[in-house]
Structures are given as structure tokens and as C-alpha cells.
Amino acid sequence: MAIAKAERLMNLALCLLGTGRPLSKRELRGSIEAYLEASSDDSFNRMFERDKDDLRELGLVIATVESLDGEIGYLARRDSNRLPPVTLDAEEAAALGLAAKVWQQARLAGAASGALQKLRAAGLPEDVDPYEAHSALEPRIPVHEASFEPLMLACRDRRPVVFDYRKATAARPEQRQVEPWALECWRGHWYLAGWDRDRGAERVFRLSRITGKVRSRAGRFTADVPDVVTVRETVASWAGETADRTALIRLRSGSGYPLRAKASAVRDLGDGWDELEIPYGHGLDAWLVEFGPDVVVLEPAELRAEVVDRLRAVAKG
């Protein structure tokens, strides 16, 4: 039924756009097969009025014109239904090209390429190639996780999902029931923000920690979707990016390069260990645990206790 209606709307739109003069209901009924099959005039009139309203709701400007003999006709003038030319500068084209590379690594590669071709036809500057690298360093957004596409579609369609998720401090994954809101890439990793039904709170999940398949669930969202979903800000705060203190740690030589990049001071202690001063914010304990035996927290005492608790939880399984 949905396909039949879409075809009928398309045929009506083509008739109204393709005519050089207003077409009456009688002429439209004789030109569109679905209208010819209407069981009665009343049935046709109801169908036509619904279709006309649907096309107008979709943005088609339909003019109503009365002829000299009082007959009402309809047409969609091309000048009233023509979009302005698409103009993109080099930065905007580069952003589109980078976004398209995300879809190139999923099943939407064909749609992404087609969209860029249409933009090119609609006015994308000929001297700008969205796929071309414009410097020695070419920006890329990796999409290696199998969960990316089903979660992207679930965010678009507002469908709840279920998946198994392994936290950084857990030995085994746990099932999570989530109402997905948005996906964002931060420092080479994809994250999902949404409402965790079991915990009754907003949560952010790293896609690389999702195991198995993402399963869709029927039903509506139980929580309101916020106007702005701050995935990057949330992840940054968990990773200590909003640090307001300093922690002192020992780090094994030749390891923990991300920690070394954040350090404000590094001292060689000898015996294969260095001492680092690093920013301390919410979530630093979870990050330090990922480096296992290569990191020892010296101070503050509360951070040391948090890391020890997490390591014990992992050891218990």
C-alpha cells in the first residue's frame, strides 16, 4: 500500500510539473492509472485531495487557477519549485568529502557517492574534489565496528536496541537495553549516546566494546531525546580532558605514550620507570586501568584507591 501511494504521488507531481497549463481534475484522472481505477467520483475526489495535501506538505507548491469558464485547474510551476543553486566553499566541500568517507566503509557507499555526484551537478565547484587530500595529512574517520551501521539506523529511526557491552573494568560483557540518540567520533573511536533503560540514565558507549550483534526492539522511546547530545564533551570529561587537578604516576619506560603526550612533567626514575605529572579529571581511573601493570598511581590517594578497586573488580571477573 505504501509503495502504491508513493507511486501515485510521484505520478501526480510529474503531471503537475510537466504541464504548461492548469490541468483539471477530469484531465488528471484520465492521466493517472490509480485515479482511473477509483470506484467512484467521490472516491477519486477524496484520493486526489489527500494526495494534493500530501504533496504540499512535502514542499511542492501547487497553484490553483480558475479558467474563464469557471473550471478549476492545477499546476506546479517550475520557477516556484526550483531550489536555489548549491554553493560550497573549499572547507564545506572537504567536510562533505570526509563525511562521505565514513559511508564508503559501510553499505551506504553507493548512496554517499550518488549524493556527492548530485551535489556536483547542482553546483559543487568543479575545482574542488571532496575525495582528494588537500595536504600531506589526509583526515580519515575509521568505521571498523560492525555495530556502527545498525546503531546509525536505530538512531535515525528512533528504535530501541539491545547489545552486549564489555566495560573496561569487566571481564565479561553485560546486556544493555538502550534508546540510541546519536553517534560521534572522538579521537579515532566511535561512541553512542543514549538512554540506558536498566540504569534509568543517559550513558555513552564505545562501539569497540560492543560484542555480538545489535538487536532492534519494538516500541517507542521512554525518555525524551535532548535537543543537543554532547557525546564528545561527555567522553572528554570521562577521559580527564576537563581536569582541574594533577596526578602523579609511575609509568614503565617505553609504554603509555598517550599518557606521556598529556604529561606536564616527566622524570626518569631509572630501573625502567618514569614519573609523570598528568591532568586529573573525572574518569582518569578508568583510563589508567587500561594500561595494566605499566602504571602505578602515586597520588592523590583517592585516585590510587579508585584504580585499585577497578583492578580488583577485573581480577574477580
Describe the structure.
This protein is an alpha+beta fold. 38% of the residues lie in helices and 24% in strands. It contains eleven helices and twelve strands. A five-stranded antiparallel beta sheet has the order 7-6-5-4-8. It has a four-stranded antiparallel beta sheet with strand order 10-11-9-12. The radius of gyration is 29 Å and the shape is elongated. The model is unreliable at 133-138 (pLDDT under 50).
Give a short overview.
By secondary structure, the chain is of the alpha+beta class. It has helices at 2-18, 25-31, 33-36, 41-57, 90-104, 109-122, 148-157, 231-238, 257-262, 284-289, 301-316; strands at 23-24, 63-66, 72-75, 161-165, 174-186, 189-196, 201-206, 210-216, 245-252, 265-270, 273-280, 295-299.
Which features would summarize this protein structure in a list?
11 helices, four-stranded antiparallel beta sheet, five-stranded antiparallel beta sheet, 317 residues
